[in-house]
Design a protein that fits this description.
single chain; 640 residues; alpha/beta; Rossmann fold; 9-stranded mixed β-sheet; 7-stranded mixed β-sheet; 22 helices; 22 strands
Amino acid sequence: MNFLFSKFQLRKLLLLTVDTTIVLVSCLAAFLIIGEDHIQFDRSFFTPSLLLLGCLTMSRLFFSTYNSIWRFADTREYSYLICADTIGFLAATLVGGFLLWAYASFLFLFITFMLSLVLVLCSRIIYKQLHHYNRHYERGHKDVSAIQIAIVGAGHAGTMLLEELQSSKTHEYAPYCFFDNDVLKSGSFIRGVKVYNLEKNMLNMLRSTPISEVVLAVPAITAEEQQRIVDICLEAGCKVKIYASPFERLNKNPGMDKSRKLNIRDINIEDLLSREPVSLDLELTLKLIHDKTVLITGGGGSIGSELCRQVLAMTPKKLVIVDIYENSTYEIQRELLANSELKTEVVVEIASIRDTQKMEHLFARHQPDVVFHAAAHKHVPLMEDSCDEAIKNNVFGTMNVVNAAERHGVQKFILISSDKAVNPTNVMGATKRIGEMIIQSKQDSKTEFTAVRFGNVLGSNGSVLPIFAKQIALGGPVTITDKRVNRFFMTISEAVQLVLQASAMAERAEIFVLDMGQPVQIYDLAQNMIKLAGLIPHKDIEIQEIGLRPGEKMYEELLTKNERLKQTSNEKIFVEHGEEISEKELLLKMARLKEALESMDNDTIRKGLKAVVPTYLNPENVNGAQEKTTALEMAKKINA
């Protein structure tokens, strides 16, 4: 500490000495400019010179200009210096006018002040530029192992990244150039780094220069623009990374380059498939959650755990996490309790939704105000072989939770549904459709029941992304069912945000449909993941078709042919207007399904499902005649 203190004081003393020398040199220069006819080299020279030197020094000390680290200086530091010198000059002028007017020449003081200010500013700027030049020279020229990078985006984020790179020694990146779409910036320089036009120059420059990595620093970039840039980079053989906001938490970005302490991470397939930021009515959502008791079934799963995170951020009074699988539930519990500012009571209940008595006990004990029902068996091929388990969990388990919620006065109940419930061709989808029917039958309940329907979420347990990633890591092949297959995708975070928003808007027995955007070809998804790994499809990694699995569709849907949509105040959320079902009719159907379930025969159970869900069809009858559509396109047709 003593060493650092003395070093800091020495730096201040050196800077003070330099500034004093500059003021004295400026005084001599002013004397020569004015001439001996107006001022003599005697008391009339020395008195105002010392007066100005004292006033300037006192003003600079008052504004703490000697406490600034000038190699990191920005507009604020330079502004403080100009203000300090201006006030010092005015003080010297006033003191000279009242006390020493016979000896002080205003012209002499003014010329000295202007010269010293210009020279002091120049000294700071030259010092800063020399410092940056030395850093750039050491990293870009002396260190032959430096990674030459191009920064896409010559805006605020790109400039922040450049400043971070140029001012830090803890990384091995050397900025080579900028790429930007703004033609007015093309050919200009930012801190010595040239800006090139992205459209005209990018591909050729990546091929003809030592650039090996490209960092995207455009926060507002669209998925389409990002995909186009990534394609150019991969074609040129360059790795692609993303510069995240300095305020982005590292724990939300496991791939963050922590060793170099930079907010740079590898680009991933989620970045390419993500869409425009979700616009939320936070006040409405907070009203639903804040200071309430919230119960989440399936809280240890992909959707359930993200629900827990986002719900907790809205400070409920109590958060009850219910799940049968203890390992993932324990992990989300540890994550949530690690928050030192936690104001919410977090309770974990290991329980099965199939257990009617346990559900009654939990609802009686915790008296939840809001329930999110995310617990479900969702793996399509497994449920084709275990029809009875799918029905026990997804149908009768849901009925248990719904009945317990209604009996114990829950204010709002939200079922997490799936696009596989639309014209289902598999057992899992059919059971999800029955879950929606249970919700639709509760028109007259005091509890507000609603369901939210959406497609696949990126990176969820059992989804194609982690499967493809493992296959690529093992050297392939990457297996897809069919080149023509497409699916709707949404990030987990976006899906949960929209679920919360839809839940806040829901009134009674409604089914909300989320706009999933355009469907994604699974074959294209596989190719992009291989390319992002720095490999070439069909050369380094093979892509093999293995055929559709039992119960799978060629294309997913969000609406049946008989359903209509109404757009809500949020452009990404729609309300479905389908056929309603009475509670009496539903109970009759459930009784028939229970009889079929007791047979323990998959064929009999499927017949029972078809009796309950008329839209449940064989996949062979659907795959040849499906139409590709999105909820948004359907809504536009209806509104038109």
